[in-house]
Amino acid sequence: MSNQAIGGWRAGSLFRRRVRRFWTEQWKAWRTALDWTVWVYVLVPAVWIIGGTYADLWHHPPAWLANLPLWTGERLPLVVVFAGRFRSFAEEADVLFLLRKRSWIRGLLLRGAAYTAGVLLLLSAVLYAVLLPFFAGVHHYRAGAIVMMLVYTWIWGCVGAVWRNLLEARYAGFRKWLVKTAVTLLLAAAYLVPMIVWGSAPAMLAAPAGVGLVVCAGLLRIKLRARDAFESDARQEQLARLASTQLLLRNVIEHKPRVRLSRPVLLRRSNRLFRRFDGKTMLAEMIMKAFVRRMALIRTWLGFTFVSTAAVFLSPAVIQPFVGAALLLLLSTWIISHWRGMLEEPFFAQFRWTDHALRGSAGLVRFWLAAPAAALFGLAGGARTYGAWGLLAAIPAVLLWLLLSNVVTSTMVLRLDRKGKGA
């Protein structure tokens, strides 16, 4: 009963109905914002100005357009490779009966692939139409070369769309972010390397375009055989249907924070970091665990550390220790602000910490969260000044940071309010 009608419906008619309903919903959403005043006062003048500017680029190319290097136009179409999204038009109700009809699911996915390819072809055509004054007017590319570049971009855009769809169903959490980042870099390299090497002779792109076509066919075959991708497809389709509404109402509706329950990347188990059980050690350990388990804080810490390491490396050898000390004090200020914020949370506020415990925990948190940065500063500065033997400078750098951190902790004055929080 793969091709038999069920209640007058076939896979093709069901797909057409869903596509028609999708675009009807998008038009209704945009029609609420695009009334006649928007058309008269905004869109019509914008089309007039953009059209006039485009025509002027053809007849009188400005100097900045002629001075742009060729690689600028070759890299802009990478947007198509990154922007493509595979559309399956799956719905949550399909789990009731449609999942049992593999032929129907296969038919919907094949039509969804054709729809995705059509949208990406239109997007590629629009992008290259915008770039025509650059390629044809400035660099005098022939029509066949531009068409070859368009087809090449379109094929790798389809590869990216199917590949990202498969990753959405296979991975979750930090692993999905890591794999998607690696795939994005791989796609960029696979697309840009042939474009850079053979950009001046676009006819040579036929071979990498054929490779992309084979890769796309293989990924599509994997997609058709996948058995665990329905929930991911339904979720992505729901986001696609709501994209226009969310865009129009982004400044109107108050967004409530989304509660996500996920395992932390580091320190997933409640193991001890220190052996001592006194108040300052226990408080410092809990705050350090909370810091390491928050990915946003780790990204900020890594960004600051890497940029600061580059600053130490590029500084003259005479002032490297002073630059490193200043950056470590700046980093420790941010760490202590996190420490103070943690004390304001209800879990920590329910305990009455002594002045000694607060002072000691602040010192431990400051030292251990900034010690890796101090070691990197020592590695970078020592390697530049003394070569391979300079890598040992990480040890005195950490020891100097220990001394500096103890001095700061001993001079720090903590005031306690009535609730026992650090002020």
From TrEMBL:
Lineage per the UniProt record: Bacteria, Bacillati, Bacillota, Bacilli, Bacillales
Keywords assigned: Membrane, Transmembrane, Transmembrane helix
Source species: Paenibacillus artemisiicola
Keyword ATP-binding: no
Protein name: ABC transporter permease
Highest rank taxon of the organism: Bacteria
InterPro entries for this protein: EcsB_ABC
Transmembrane segments: 36-55, 108-131, 143-165, 177-197, 203-222, 296-316, 322-343, 364-383, 389-414
